[in-house]
Write a structure and sequence with these properties.
With about 250 residues, the protein is an alpha+beta fold. It has three helices and 18 strands. A hairpin with a 2-residue loop joins strand 5 and strand 6.
Length: about 250
Amino acid sequence: MKHIFPLIFSLLLPASLLLAACNGSAAPQLEGGEWQLIEMNGKPLPAQILVTLNFQEGQAGGRAPCNQYGAGYQQDGSHLSFEQVISTLMYCEDVMEYETEYLAALEGIRSFKLENDRLHLLDESGASVLVFSQPQTPALEGSTWKVSLPGISLPAEGSEMTMSFSDEQVNGQAPCNSYFAGYTQVGSALTFSAAGSTKMFCAGEDVMDVETIFLASLEQVRSVAAQAGGLALLDEGGNVVLLLTP
């Protein structure tokens, strides 16, 4: 008789574990997690397109390719849905098609799974439409960005500074001249060699002054970090010296 209760318990335990699995109670909780999109509808996301997703106090949100967005979310085991996805209303050239595709995909999510530190968001058919990894520093090689100086406006309306990374070289357009430099990236560490440029002079208030500040800023860069809507290039003290947006 004394052996009956241990036997009954040993038979019931696997059944209870199976029931818990069926109820989805073993699924991890997404609350508090932060993620970065790496694949959408079966295609890798380009390096210059940054999308983040975080879960906090029943709200999901982050940065789409251009705008900030948010939505309520409901998780029940591995079941997941987003409600009333809203976003700010800025327009960013060349990235809006990615944003439209991403926000539409969110509204169709019905479940999720975690595999090898990847968060897969699945649609009603069970297809993986959005794949996220832990936040990471993007590789700059092959990417192109718009550039701004924190707290400094470009002197001419409609002017634009750009930065393209290719074959360990960076080049682009300063307020007046084209420029070029070498660059080295190892993880988040980033440095530029002394920049060269064409030698035009552009009349107009502060044009050449802003260009001088920009080229000098390149030599101060020591690291890169993801920031809402783009990247921040930081100096040795962690101060933002340049901002990059897709």
